[in-house]
Amino acid sequence: MQEYFGAPVISLTLVDPYFYHLDTALFVLDEENIAYFPEAFSPGSREVLARLYPDAVLATREDAMAFGLNSVSDGRHVFISPGATDLAGQLAGRGYVPVPVDLSEFHKAGGGIKCCTQEIRETRS
Question: Is 116 noted as a catalytic residue in this protein?
């Protein structure tokens, strides 16, 4: 993948069974930063994340369990679960605009905001 796309590939290991997919434990805020729940990752993965993103927003277990990390950001606005109150406060304190979106019915099936998105990428010839 790294050679094909010309971008570094970083392998991360999730260790908490509740956080069954990367989208439940980490999301991209903008070109330079992320938010994540450290305890979802192995010690080695936590070291990598801390080195690559020293200013990352760190979520609490409560916010992560509320699907707060299954969020989407356009670099300014962060569409986030209304149950992730501490995370929303941290984001607001860093200049992001939290936009709570209630998907509690969707959570029953194990999904959140990120699961309801479709990325559209511009191709250039």
Answer: no
Residue stretches of the chain with pLDDT short of 70: 103-120, 125
From 77, 107, 115, 116, the catalytic residue? 115
Please tell me the predicted confidence (pLDDT) of residue 1. Answer: 81
CATH (domain of 92):
3.75.10.10
pLDDT value at residue 98: 96
Question: Which long-range CB contacts under 8 A does 57-66 form with residues at least 24 apart?
Answer: 57/29, 57/33, 57/87, 57/90, 57/91, 57/94, 59/35, 59/84, 59/86, 59/87, 60/86, 60/87, 61/37, 62/86, 63/37, 63/87, 64/19, 64/24, 64/25, 64/37, 64/40, 65/18
102 within domain boundaries: yes
- Structural domain count, the chain: 1
Whole-number pLDDT of residue 106 = 58
